[in-house]
């Protein structure tokens, strides 16, 4: 309880090998599900809303500030963490996404995870194993498959 938030944050950043740390933080929820960011300058005991929830205490890693242009981020691991956060925010409905954009983003996610489309490996309906948006429809999955086929040769980090 006497540990500063900055020590906990540093431990997390080291654990995931993150260098561009200014964008990230740890958040927690109080008993009424109100979200707070862990203040690096305070001890854990000074975060009253956190202390009242445990032990155990649950902290969530996340992006505090989005980069204006994620392509300008220096580290691939930072870009990957941004990708994971956006993917989760779209899936959970926190970040609204039109169907055409969801199809493009889904295709890039599939390309980064599965690589190039292979008709022998990727049989019809292979996208249905993945979740991208709340209430995902078959039409979206078919659009993702169509776009994925056009992304041949794109490396995971590029996608």
Summarize the structure in words.
With 159 residues, the chain is mainly alpha-helical. The protein folds into two domains: 65 residues, Phosphatidylinositol 3-kinase Catalytic Subunit, Chain A, domain 1 (Ubiquitin-like (UB roll)); 53 residues, Acyl-CoA Binding Protein. It has five helices and three strands. A three-stranded antiparallel beta sheet has the order 2-1-3. A hairpin with a 5-residue loop joins β1 and β2. α4 packs across α5. The longest helix has 16 residues. The model has no long low-confidence stretch (mean pLDDT 93). Keywords: Cytoplasm, Cytoskeleton. It is found in: Cytoplasm, Cytoskeleton. One of its GO terms (cellular component) is cytoskeleton. It comes from Mustela putorius furo. This is Band 4.1-like protein 4A.
Kindly list the characteristics that best describe this protein.
single chain; 159 residues; mainly alpha; Ubiquitin-like (UB roll); Acyl-CoA Binding Protein; 2 domains; three-stranded antiparallel β-sheet; 5 helices; 37% helix; FERM/acyl-CoA-bd_prot_sf; Band 4.1-like protein 4A
